[in-house]
Design a protein that fits this description.
With about 230 residues, the chain is an all-beta fold. It is built from no helices and 17 strands.
């Protein structure tokens, strides 16, 4: 699965925007807590050759907040700060000069749920808030389970590498931590149980035992796990 969940598109135009201004973005996006989502977006605005050529700055704001007095959740303007709670998690992707306003949201949190609007400015010539077409984000409880990968069947006495990953996760400010548990007679090396990879040397008596990978987002009460039964030949 891709590290960023690209959800089915529910595109919305902005027919009621002022002439020359248009925004194409998903109307509704749902993501599970702790996971990531990619929101494709494009925009257009009127421009004249008579205008100067100032920088193009774009912003995403929470609905109900002011583009003049509030901090954005994401922007390409180095002179403007973003909200501390979204810094590093809400990121603009793509080239704004190619009218790309796509947004990446990582390590989604319940409090991220809400509506967001897009704003652009290019000097004093063009400034516009695309209020007619907003992005509605819903963060739901985490139900996604980790994937455990290894070659089956396991051979007795032969070291085998196993890996654990969480579909839909991506790099974020709060990294994932992994924990392995095995209800077998042979103990796990404590130094390896916090890694996403694990090397086991199974024995015949380990056949039918359960191995669990638990994934947790650091600093958050977001935990999920998967258990598999080992088949040792």
């Amino acid at each position: 699965m891709l590290p960023l969940l690209l959800l089915p598109l529910l595109w919305g135009g902005s027919p009621q925007e002022e002439p020359g201004y248009e925004l194409q973005v998903q109307k509704s996006v749902t993501v599970q807590e702790g996971l990531c989502v990619f929101v494709p977006c494009s925009f257009s605005y009127p421009w004249s050759s008579w205008y100067s050529s100032p920088p193009l700055y774009v912003y995403w704001f929470r609905d109900g907040e002011s583009q003049y007095y509030s901090q954005a959740v994401a922007t390409n303007n180095p002179g403007k700060g973003v909200k501390p709670e979204t810094r590093g998690r809400f990121r603009l992707l793509g080239d704004v000069w190619k009218k790309n306003c796509s947004l990446s949201i990582g390590d989604a949190r319940m409090r991220d749920t809400g509506s967001y609007f897009f704003y652009m400015e290019r000097g004093n010539d063009v400034r516009h808030s695309y209020q007619q077409n907003k992005l509605n984000l819903e963060v739901t409880a985490l139900i996604e389970k980790p994937d455990i990968h290894f070659l089956e069947p396991l051979e007795s006495g032969r070291p085998t590498r196993l890996s654990c990953s969480l579909p839909g996760s991506c790099e974020a400010e709060r990294p994932l931590t992994f924990s392995w548990t095995w209800n077998a007679l042979s103990p796990l090396d404590p130094e390896t149980t916090r890694s996403s990879e694990l090397t086991l040397t199974p024995r015949p008596e380990d056949h039918g035992t359960n191995l669990t990978c638990q994934v947790k987002r650091q600093g958050a009460q977001v935990t999920t796990e998967r258990t598999v039964q080992l088949n040792v030949s």
